[in-house]
Amino acid sequence: MSERAEAVIRAWAAEAGFDVCGITSADAVAGAGPALLAYLAEGRHGEMAWMEGRAAERAALSALWPGAKSAVVCGLNYGPEDDPLALLERRDRGAVSVYARHRDYHDVVKAKLKRVARRIHGEMGAAVKVFVDTAPVMEKPLAERAGLGWIGKHSNLVSRGFGSWLFLGVIATAMELAPDAPHAERCGRCRRCLDACPTAAFTGPWRLDARRCISYLTIEHAGPVPRALRPLIGNRIYGCDDCLAVCPWNRFAQAAAETKLKAREDLRAPPLAELAELDDAAFRARFSGSPVKRIGRARFVRNVLIAIGNSGDAALAAAAEARLSDAEPLVRGAAVWALARLQPWDVFCRRAAHIEEGDAMARAELDAARQEREGRADGG
Q1: For 220-265, what is each residue's pLDDT tens digit?
Q2: Are 250 and 230 spatial neighbours (Cβ–Cβ below 8 Å)?
Q3: Among the residues of the chain, which ranges form H helices?
Q4: Which one from 27, 92, 133, 313 is the annotated catalytic residue?
Q5: Are 320 and 302 spatial neighbours (Cβ–Cβ below 8 Å)?
Q6: Phi, psi of 357 (to 5 degrees)
């Protein structure tokens, strides 16, 4: 295939709104398979069973689709307008990860990929398949091989032009295309991303234990968040940007163009008290079209209550107390934890006295709070 095909595809990607596009072979990341299997064997993926179910297919696009010859990897800039870490100081507000402040990126990226894929199929006659995150495709290693950037020590893609702020999507095609040169790793001795992690989720460069990651805990983890990690979450109610935001390569990044990706104003710094009041219908309405909606109301309000418990703001105790009678056990348990941190012990005990014996999750939180209180009283 002539170079013209690659150039045309890149032009189509730019017309569709992508900021960067690269090409690699369908089996370019076959060597990543053993590393993935080792990661799964160590249990560092936590409850993300979907990673195990199709692990063999993740090794290479050709394993997922035997007809695939090439991968067209596209990147969409979602860089924030300001420092997302500044919001962590506003403890009465919830911090939503930058990527989730827009319309669901799965929908945005997939729509753009389909525009490009239709042209490859229609004008070049090649079979195509489109993948955005939910399929068993290793987008980041493919992007590195396609020259879009390199995988940083935080295990995310880093770009010289867009820092750590790129959404990725892949078009697999049966057409043979000339691959771009892989990008060299340029982290050097820097370890800012590793040191910035609030929960010490990195056991070393390129070694993330998802079970301690705030993004995992607030999005993927379904049950109560481990008590020891809750105070470290701060006011992060959906995801975490710390390791991404401190990357030195972000100095070359730019805010995403609003014509391509517009952030929702109501997700920039939402009040915690307001979010705690959301019932199921209000939650669905507020987060319609947002990736936040995918975790469901109970898990989200659990996150909000953890943030309320970390706020140190006694004025938010009323919002937590209102959730003691919530229909969801997960929410009631988080409300007990938040209230115990915000109110004097005698006041808390009076407020929590009506918790029913059969309410296992709330009772467990109440007992744990008592044990912690007794430990402090004993000097433990």
Answers
A1: 999 999 999 999 999 999 999 999 999 999 999 888 876 677 788 8
A2: no
A3: 3-15, 32-41, 50-53, 55-58, 61-64, 105-124, 139-145, 192-196, 214-215, 230-233, 242-245, 272-276, 280-286, 297-310, 317-321, 329-342, 345-352, 360-377
A4: 133
A5: no
A6: -60, -35
Residue 133 appears among annotated catalytic residues: yes
Predicted model pTM: 0.92
Looking at per-residue pLDDT, the higher value among 33 and 203 belongs to: 203
CATH topology of domain 3-79+102-173: NADH Oxidase (3.40.109)
As a whole number, the mean pLDDT across the chain is: 91
74: left (phi over 0), alpha (psi -120 to 50) or beta: beta
Average pLDDT over residues 280-288: 96
Res. 63 pLDDT band, cuts 50 70 90: confident
Q: Which burial class, exposed, middle or buried, applies to 134 when counting CB atoms under 10 A from its CB (0-12, 13-18, 19+)?
A: exposed
Contact between 240 and 198 under an 8 Å Cβ cutoff? The reply is: yes
Identify the residue with better confidence: 33 or 75. 75
Q: How many angstroms separate the Cα of 334 from the Cα of each of 206, 210, 215, 224, 278?
A: 32, 21, 18, 7, 15
Beta bridge partners of 170: 73, 131
> In this structure, is the dihedral angle defined by the CA atoms of residues 298, 304, 310 and 314, taken in order, positive or negative?
negative
Whether 3 has a pLDDT exceeding 70, the answer reads: no
Q: Longest C-alpha distance within the chain, in Å?
A: 77
Residues 236/218, Cβ–Cβ less than 8 Å? yes
Distances from the Cα of 16 to the Cα of 21, 101, 167, 240, 365, angstroms:
11, 21, 14, 29, 50
Residues paired with residue 173 on neighbouring β-strands, in sequence order: 70, 128
The position carrying tokens 């993927």 is 220
Number of other CB atoms surrounding residue 117 within 10 Å? 24
Q: 126-160, pLDDT tens digit by residue? A: 999 999 987 778 899 999 999 999 999 999 999 99
Q: Where are the domains of the chain?
A: 3-79+102-173, 271-380
